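Q: You know discrete backbone vocabularies at least as well as I do. I have my own habits and do not want them to colour yours. No explanation is needed for now; the record alone will do.
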Amino acid sequence: MNDLWIILTGIVVSCACSLVGCFLVLRKMSMIGDAISHAVLPGIVIAFLISGSRDSFIMLIGASIIGLLTVFLIQTFKQSGVQGDAAIGVVFTALFAVGVVLVSLYTRDIDLDLDCVLYGEIAYIPWNTLVIGGMDLGPMAIWQVGSVFLLSILVIALFFKQFKLCSFDAAMAAAVGIPVVLFHYVLMGLVSLTTVASFESVGAILVVGMLIVPASTAYLLTERLGAMIGISMIISVLSSVLGYYTAYILDASIAGSMMSVAGILFVLAVLFSPSQGIIVRMIGQKKKSTTAASLS
């Protein structure tokens, strides 16, 4: 049963990340996830200092607030003339450094389990369960990430046309009266919640990969947003299942193996994508050369 919970957690986490990741890839904002995943450290520490508890929900709130602050600061700096990549780099390194300082000053003798925050350990998920009225309802991580995943599905389904137009042509969206800035922050809020909720399972570092890799793979395989989201979900499921059994065989990191499988699927898409694959283009060029030679 523990194996099933681990695989299911991997599927829920990767699908939640790939859903919002598709919009990040389309907007060329993939590294926002990296910024949020590192910048929320001070939020985790401050939430602990205020509450005196390591409860996951309290940590989620504190980290999410800092995540939204990260997005706001990045956007503010970009509007002030700072280049986008520079704004991301400045904000996330500065906030991450503040978190490190807070840890060194106030939590030296307290185990905040920061290794779990950074690297995650999905193998321990089945032992941290949600119990209500004496009934064990399964791993806390699935309920936590699953709730955020359902929220993302609901919001994106309700405003799919708006998100789609804002992602492909923000100027056109603004021209037809869509509040582009509002939908930008709604999306960034979903990214922040998804990133933070996934910490316990796969850690901050691998969350970035799950945000980017399945969505980028799907981007190579289709030109339709709906299909891109569906394909990214399929890739997420395959990565989770195959990654778990790879880790089992190799006795390696489960989350790391899941991301490795996702990386392999991305490389295959780069090589064999019907429209953009390197091998496919080489074959096409060879056929054109052969046809041209035969005509001459």
About this structure: DSSP finds 14 helices and two strands in the chain. The mean pLDDT is 84. Residues 39 and 95 are 5 Å apart (CA to CA).
